[in-house]
Amino acid sequence: MSKIISQKNYSFTAPDGKKRERIDLFLTNCIENATRTKIQKLIEANFVKVNGVFVKPSYQVQPKDFVEVSIPISPRPDEIEPEEIPLEIIFEDEFLLVVNKPAGMVAHPAYANYTGTLVNALLHHSQNLSNKNTAERPGIVHRIDKDTSGLLVVAKDDWTHAKLAEQFSKHITEREYWAVAWGIFKKKNGEINSNIVRSKSDRKKFTASEADGKTAVTFYEVLKEFDFTSLLKLNLKTGRTHQIRVHLTSIGHPIFGDQTYGGTNIVYGSSLPKMNSRVENLFKIMTRQALHAKTLGFFHPHTNEFLRFDSELPYDFKQLLKKL
Questions:
Q1: CB-based contacts of 216: which residues, under 8 Å, 6+ apart?
Q2: Does pTM top 0.85 for this prediction?
Q3: Catalytic one among 24, 145, 147, 258?
């Protein structure tokens, strides 16, 4: 696995009288041989801070701003190497395939994750993958988080990719997730409707907002209740980054085991007997967020037939439910 073996650090202070300028343009002019695209990728990967806070590429640099940049130096390959990694293929034809991604696998190569990804495995499996995205994301139409398991559709050619992406953009795909969330819900089914925006304090996180960000809608239904958690079925009308995790946290029911959004705290049931030891034992079973992309449906771009695929819950998820 590729590792960051060192990094080059830069710091700049914007001079007095400095005209407002986008951070990506500012750094492109400050750092020798830097391209705007490379700078934008560094910003999006949380390697750039202004006054100690992660920012967006569109941030406007102002006089006296203190800018810090860390450029990771890693043994990045010139090309993505195919790797013989087992894949659970649910469906495949000459145009596309549906894969059940295990938890812990990153979808595509990025900083410090150039091997062991779904793309590395796909390149070994198939000679034909779409190139509509960047070279590091061949075939990838949509993504799910590293520690979320479940179904993904992969395109083998650019036309198929474009038609599938259009369905996701127009929200006409079927996407059903199952999750274990903290607490007992007052309403057994409902709609969570709030914008999602990147956190200003931590660029790796997102938060719900009434005014800023992008529209996001999640529908939920309680399938089963336990002492201090609930099993949910969730359907996405939109597909924002971390949408389910952020939405459930925003209503006080974070996903069990979600380290990023408060799911490793005892949110409910603190007065129950031996609660600390019970939860500690459950975290040993579910070492990630209890979220699985269970069902995926879409229209086949070439036949216009609606295809619907369902997957079993992974072993850790089943064991968690058994213990609960």
A1: 193, 194, 195, 196, 238, 240, 243, 246, 247
A2: no
A3: 145
